[in-house]
Design brief:
Number of helices: 9
Structural class: alpha/beta
Number of strands: 15
CATH class of the largest domain: Alpha Beta
Distance between the termini: 35 Å
CATH architecture of the largest domain: 3-Layer(aba) Sandwich
CATH topology of the largest domain: D-Maltodextrin-Binding Protein, domain 2
Radius of gyration: 21 Å
Shape: elongated
Strand content: 25-35%
Helix content: 25-40%
């Protein structure tokens, strides 16, 4: 029986493309919001949720940092998806008729150079694939959409520019999440441990947490902070380190961290993607 994987957006979204690339034989389940995609995995309606965490051009996906602390899911894998923006039009029109362009605001920003050259009027769409769907279903003849090759295929649109973005180096990193937690680790593989934490409200607490990683020779590869709560006093940190709790130095570093933190939430331990070794 094939796996079912939820994603945010409509069919043809880059998250849908990520599902197809990571799980070639899975059933992709579109959801209107990130919350619904996560809930589908929490309830067991799907096996995994494919959730974007950050983009090389646009930075972190802010909504996800708000949702992760509330979720019961664990990170099982990471996946890096190349984003290739295409310029799509209705098959019964030609590019000379186009006067407007529609897509998600980030996609529009990532294609700003060619949009300016063409002098198109800009329309903001909810997402890339939804914009392609709108052109197709409404048979719009004066508007182009920026979306994926998958969206072009699904909505039977004509591609008039295969590489429409300002830069070809556009990568979105995804978490593949489920209710199951990775607990068995291959000694020949490299892992990443991901967690959220808040330090005690005492001077030097964050410094002491960082010192625990340094003392135990644990490499930190990501640390981000953001405030939560109505008074903006409490700061939460999102952190990724190389290693897993079964390794002695990682275990000691995490044990030290608990002494200086008011809250720690483990998000998951997962194998480091082979994409990283190619960089």
């Amino acid at each position: 029986m094939s796996k079912k994987v939820s994603f945010q957006g409509v069919e043809g979204a880059y998250s849908h493309l990520a599902v197809q690339e990571f799980f070639p034989n899975a059933e992709a389940v579109p959801c209107k919001t990130f919350e619904l995609a996560i809930t589908a995995a929490e309830s067991g309606d799907v096996d995994y949720a494919m959730i974007p965490i950050e983009n090389s051009a646009a930075g972190r996906v802010a909504d996800i940092h708000r949702l992760l602390p509330k979720s019961d899911l664990h990170i099982n894998f990471e996946h890096f998806q190349k984003v290739e923006h295409k310029l799509l039009i209705h098959p019964e029109t030609h590019q000379g008729q186009i006067k407007k362009i529609i897509s998600h605001e980030q996609a529009l920003a990532q294609c700003s150079e060619k949009i300016q050259q063409l002098d198109y009027d800009i329309l903001i769409g909810a997402d890339t694939a939804g914009s392609a769907k709108y052109i197709s279903e409404q048979k719009i003849s004066d508007t182009a959409a920026i979306a994926s090759s998958l969206a072009a295929k699904i909505y039977e649109l004509k591609t008039v520019d295969e590489s429409f973005a300002n830069s070809s180096n556009n990568i979105t990193r995804f978490y593949v999440m489920s209710k199951n937690e990775n607990k068995d680790f291959d000694p020949d593989k490299t892992y990443i441990s991901s967690f959220l934490f808040s330090v005690n409200n005492t001077p030097g607490s964050l410094f002491k947490v960082m010192g625990g990683f340094a003392t135990n020779n644990v490499n930190m590869i990501k640390l981000e902070s953001y405030n939560y709560g109505a008074d903006f006093v409490i700061t939460q940190f999102y952190c990724e380190i190389e290693g897993h709790p079964g390794q002695e130095n990682t275990k000691f570093a995490l044990d030290d961290m608990y002494h200086y933190c008011s809250k720690v939430r483990k998000l998951g331990v997962f194998e480091k993607s082979t994409y990283r070794s190619r960089q």
